[in-house]
Amino acid sequence: MAETQSGRDTEVEKRARQQRSLLDAALRHVPFDGWSWTAIDAGARDLALAPGEAHRVFPGGPQELVRVFSSAADAQMLETLEGLDFGAMKIREKVAAGVRARLDAVAAHREAVRRGVTFFALPQNAAVGLACLYRTVDAIWYAAGDKATDYNFYTKRALLAGVYSSTLLFWLNDKSEEFAATWAFLDRRIGEVLNVAGRLGKTVGAAMSLPDRLLATLTTARRGVSRRGRGPLRSARR
After folding, report:
1. Total of domains in the chain
2. Which segments of the chain does DSSP mark as H helices, in order?
3. Which of 51, 53, 87, 132 is disulfide-compatible with 70, CB 3.0–4.6 A?
4. Does 72 fall in a domain?
């Protein structure tokens, strides 16, 4: 059993290496051919792979290629964040560091990322884009130490998805030195979102407590009516 599992692990690792190798080769063509089979096949030719080998490595085609690219960027982001002293940072600083590390991870492939925005805009690729975005913001929040399990879990990820997406679009067109304008934009967006999150948290928290308060009120009212109503009813029976 152990040998079988070890064999499976070896196959998984082997395929991961093959995918990463073909991804790196295809990335040279993505800026020109987009996230497409054309780019994948061109990368396969660069690696002198046998005909049809690219389809075996990426049976899911361009969608699988871009998922592997996004996952690799997430992994690089987390590796960067592990080297930071998060204990001494405020939550907004942790989130900003996460977004910045994620963009730094793909900085060498900015044109490929730009083509990715177009790729995800197509209806048939929207679900893949949302899945990649969710995994990225989820990884950032966990790295920042988020342990939320209530409605805040989804609220935080939805808000960060907006911050990350808008910052990414700004970054794609940023010509400032070392993306200084992007990081300033990111700080502003995080400040705005945290203010919204604070107000939203109070509103949602109040809304979540309404059922309990309403139940308590109705229970009290019911008891009062019951106590007041017993006298007349008994009198009527007499």
Report:
1. 2
2. 2-26, 30-33, 37-46, 53-57, 61-82, 91-105, 110-121, 126-143, 151-172, 180-237
3. 132
4. no
